[in-house]
Specification:
This protein has 398 residues and is α+β, with helices and mostly antiparallel strands. It folds into 3 domains: 8-128, Acyl-CoA dehydrogenase/oxidase, N-terminal domain (Butyryl-Coa Dehydrogenase, subunit A, domain 1, Orthogonal Bundle); 132-254, Butyryl-CoA Dehydrogenase, subunit A, domain 2 (Beta Barrel), CATH 2.40.110; 259-395, Up-down Bundle (Butyryl-CoA Dehydrogenase, subunit A, domain 3), CATH 1.20.140.10. Helix content is 51%, strand content 12%. The strands form 3 sheets. Strands 1-4-5-8 form a 4-stranded mixed β-sheet. A 4-stranded antiparallel β-sheet has the order 2-3-7-6, with no helix packed on it. The longest helix is centred in the C-terminal third of the chain and has 30 residues, at 298-327. The radius of gyration is 21 Å and the shape is globular. The structure holds flavin-adenine dinucleotide.
C-alpha cells in the first residue's frame, strides 16, 4: 500500500522551508527582479540566502550521518525544493539543488578522503557552493546522450594523465551555473581520445583557486535573474589524482545514478507551478468584472481548476520519482526522474501562461511576478538536458 501522508518531521521540515522561502528568499528576489541594473551581481544578494539555508541543513539533507549529514530521504529533499522553487526557481536550482546533489555525488562515489575533506565542510553548515561543468561552447550538450560510438562526437575538454596528476585543457559554455562564484567545481573531461564519450568521461573536483581555472563575465538570461552563469576556461590546469571523483572514464555511468539532480529540478519547477497558480487564484478572488469577482466566471474558474489539477499531478510524479530514488535508483534515473522533470516543467509553463491570461493586461506588467514566472518556466525546458532529449531517452524504456 502506498502511503502519501507526510510524517510530523516532514511536515515540520516543509514548514521550515516555507518560512525560509517567504521571509528570507522572497524579499531579496523582489529586489533583484525589480532592478533594471544589468551590472548587478545577484550573488551579492544571494550569498546571505545561501549561508542561512546551508545552516538550516538544506544542502546536507541527503548526506549520510557518518559525515554529519541529516540522512534524509529524497522526499525530504523534494519538500524543501518545492518550497524554495515557489519563492524563486533560479535560487532553488542554482544554489541549493546543485550543491545538494553534487555533495550527494561525492557521498556516493567519492573516496573516504574526499568525503572527509569536502563533505565535512558542508555538513558543518559552511556555505560551500558548487558548480558542475559539462556543456561546451561549440558542442551540442545533447551529444551526452548520443548512442553512436564515435570518439569524435561530444565534449572536447581533455584531461591528460601526467604521473600523479591530470592536466586539463578546454572551455565550458556560458551557461555553466555558478561559474566564477562557486567554491568547488566538478569538471567533466575526456580521459581518452580513442573511446566514445560515454566511456571516456571523467569527473574532477577543482577548488576555486586552482591555477589555470578562469571565468568569463556573467551571462544575461531572459529569466533566472537571481542566478549566476558564465563561461569557464581550463588552461593547463593541474589536478592531483586524488581529485578524480569516481572511476576514470566512468563519470557518465556514475552520473546516471544521480537521479536527484533531475528530481530536485522537477520539485523546484513544481514550486513555480504552485506559485503561479496561487498568485492567479488570489488575483481572481479580488478582481471584479460584470459585478463579481472574476473567479465566479466559469471561464476563469475552469482555468484555475486546471492549474490546481496539473500542479497536484506534477507533485505526485515528483514524489513517485523521489520514492524510486531511495528504493530503485536505476528506475528513478532512467524513467521516473526524467518523466517528473518533463511533466513538472510543462505544468510550470502552462500555469505561468495561464496566470498571465488571468491577470489580463496586468499579467505583463513588471510589478506582477507573472512575466517572471513565464520566463523562468521556459528556462526549465533546457536546463540540465532538453525536454526532447529526456523524452528520447525514455524511448529506450518503453
Ligand atoms: C538555466 C541553465 C542552467 C544550466 N546550467 C548548466 C551547468 O551548470 N553546467 C553545464 O555544463 N551546463 C549547463 N547548462 C547547459 C544545458 O545543460 C544545455 O543548454 C542543455 O543540455 C541543452 O544543450 P545545448 O544548449 O547544447 O542544446 P543542443 O544540444 O545544441 O540542442 C539544440 C536543440 O536540438 C535538439 N536536439 C539535439 N540533439 C537532438 C537529437 N539527437 N534528436 C532530437 N533533437 C535533438 C535539442 O532538444 C534542442 O532543442 C544550463 C542551461 C540552462 C538553460
Amino acid at each position: 500500500m502506498i502511503d502519501l501522508n507526510l510524517t510530523p518531521e516532514q511536515l515540520q521540515l516543509q514548514k521550515k522551508a516555507r518560512e525560509f522561502a517567504e521571509s528570507v528568499i522572497k524579499p531579496i528576489v523582489e529586489k533583484i527582479d525589480g532592478s533594471n541594473n544589468t551590472n548587478l551581481s545577484p550573488w551579492d544578494f544571494c550569498q546571505d540566502i545561501f549561508r542561512s539555508g546551508a545552516k538550516l541543513g538544506f544542502t546536507s539533507l541527503l548526506l549520510p550521518p557518518e559525515y554529519g549529514g541529516m540522512a534524509g530521504k529524497c522526499i525530504d529533499f523534494v519538500l524543501v525544493q518545492e518550497e524554495l522553487g515557489a519563492a524563486d526557481v533560479s535560487i532553488a536550482c542554482s544554489y541549493f539543488n546543485l550543491t545538494g546533489a553534487m555533495s550527494l555525488f561525492i557521498a556516493r562515489v567519492g573516496t573516504d578522503e574526499q568525503k572527509k575533506r569536502i563533505l565535512s565542510n558542508i555538513t558543518s553548515g559552511e556555505p560551500l557552493l558548487f558548480s558542475a561543468a559539462e556543456s561546451e561552447p561549440n558542442v551540442a550538450t545533447s551529444d551526452m546522450f548520443c548512442p553512436i560510438r564515435d570518439p569524435q562526437i561530444g565534449m572536447k575538454t581533455f584531461a591528460r594523465r601526467d604521473d600523479n596528476e591530470y592536466v586539463l585543457n578546454g572551455s565550458k559554455s556560458c551557461l555553466v551555473t555558478n561559474a566564477g562564484i562557486a567554491d568547488g567545481y566538478f569538471i567533466l573531461a575526456r580521459t581518452s581520445k580513442e573511446k566514445p564519450l560515454p566511456e571516456s568521461m571523467s569527473m574532477f573536483y577543482l577548488p576555486a583557486d586552482t591555477e589555470g581555472l578562469n571565468f568569463g563575465k556573467r551571462t544575461e538570461m531572459i529569466g533566472w535573474k537571481a542566478s549566476h552563469h558564465a563561461e569557464l576556461y581550463l588552461n593547463d590546469v593541474r589536478v592531483s589524482k586524488e581529485n578524480l571523483i569516481g572511476v576514470e572514464g566512468q563519470a557518465g555511468q556514475l552520473l546516471m545514478l544521480l537521479p536527484e539532480v533531475a528530481i530536485g529540478l522537477a520539485a523546484s519547477y513544481l514550486g513555480l507551478a504552485r506559485a503561479a497558480y496561487e498568485y492567479a487564484l488570489n488575483y481572481a478572488k479580488g478582481r471584479v468584472s460584470w459585478g463579481r469577482p472574476i473567479i465566479e466566471h466559469q471561464a476563469v474558474a475552469l482555468k484555475l481548476a486546471d492549474m490546481m489539477v496539473n500542479t497536484q499531478a506534477a507533485r505526485l510524479m515528483v514524489w513517485d520519482a523521489a520514492v524510486a530514488a531511495d528504493t530503485n535508483p536505476q528506475l528513478a534515473a532512467t524513467v521516473k526522474a526524467p518523466t517528473a522533470k518533463t511533466f513538472a516543467v510543462d505544468v510550470a509553463i502552462k500555469n505561468a501562461q495561464t496566470a498571465v491570461e488571468i491577470l489580463g493586461g496586468y499579467g505583463v506588467l513588471q510589478e506582477h511576478p507573472t512575466g517572471k514566472f513565464l520566463a523562468d518556466a521556459w528556462i526549465g525546458y533546457s536546463c540540465d538536458f532538453t525536454k526532447d532529449i529526456l523524452r528520447l531517452g525514455l524511448v529506450n524504456f518503453m
